[in-house]
């Protein structure tokens, strides 16, 4: 699949980039996408929820009543879960929600997501660019020139560029990331995927291993 390379003014440079069919033209695997997105969202969870159990609640350990003959359920001290203010039974504890996915499965999911974007003609290849200093106004001009204003745009760079990142940080519907960080969730969440020429090479190297 050939895609024309645009400059930051939105004009065709006359060059073309071939998007590898092994990355952008496979048979998408929806289940692999589901698992990779589920893993991404699970990794965003802090897992710090904690409730006090019976042994952790502050209160006397004196037995409140006799064991039998009271006519009600057995209970021990005032920290019993049966009583108001007592500990919680099987409450949440700090934990990690992450789980393991094989590397090949994660790569398949990302190739599937990129294939869907290619099928939707939602992939733009932009020549490599940088800013001398962070300037949001300059980044907005690029968005307008590429005619992606109002859309969720994911800009993928070959390597970290602090000036570009800071220029886009205040824009709500724009996300900038390195090609090495590209993941299934962000690709699918974007309306349009903007890859720089250098990023295309890095993505091909990472997903063709």
Brief description of this entry?
This protein is an alpha/beta fold.
What is the molecular shape?
elongated
Calculate the terminal CA-CA distance, rounded to whole Å: 20 Å
User: How many structurally independent domains?
Assistant: 2
Q: What value does the Rg take, in angstroms?
A: 27 Å
Tell me how many strands there are. 6
- The name CATH uses for the topology of the largest domain is Ribosomal Protein L4, Chain: A
Description:
By secondary structure, the protein is α/β, with parallel strands linked by helices. 33% of the residues lie in helices and 15% in strands. It contains seven helices and six strands, in the order ββαααβαβαβαβα. The chain has helices at residues 21-24, 30-44, 103-119, 136-145, 162-168, 184-189, 197-207, and strands at residues 2-6, 12-18, 123-126, 153-157, 174-178, 192-196. α5 links the parallel β4 (153-157) and β5 (174-178). α2 packs across α3 and α4 (136-145) crosses α5 (162-168). It is elongated and about 90 Å long.
């Amino acid at each position: 699949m050939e895609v024309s390379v645009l400059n930051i003014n939105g004009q065709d440079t006359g060059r073309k980039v071939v998007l590898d069919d092994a990355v952008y033209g496979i048979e998408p695997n929806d289940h692999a996408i589901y698992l990779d997105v589920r893993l991404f969202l699970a990794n965003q969870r802090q897992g710090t929820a904690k409730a006090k159990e019976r042994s952790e609640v502050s209160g006397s350990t004196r037995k409140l009543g006799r064991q039998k003959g009271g006519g009600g359920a057995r209970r021990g001290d005032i920290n019993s879960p049966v009583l108001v203010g007592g500990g919680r039974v099987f409450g949440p504890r700090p934990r990690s929600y992450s789980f393991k996915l094989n590397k090949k499965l994660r790569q398949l999911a990302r190739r599937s997501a990129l294939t869907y974007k290619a099928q939707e003609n939602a992939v733009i290849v932009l020549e490599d660019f940088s800013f001398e200093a962070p300037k949001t106004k300059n980044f907005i001009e690029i968005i307008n020139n590429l005619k992606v204003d109002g859309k969720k745009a994911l800009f993928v760079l070959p390597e970290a560029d602090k000036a570009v990142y800071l220029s886009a940080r205040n824009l709500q519907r724009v996300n900038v990331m390195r090609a090495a960080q590209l993941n299934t969730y962000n690709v699918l969440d974007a309306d349009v995927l903007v890859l720089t020429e250098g990023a295309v090479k890095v993505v091909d190297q990472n997903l063709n291993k």
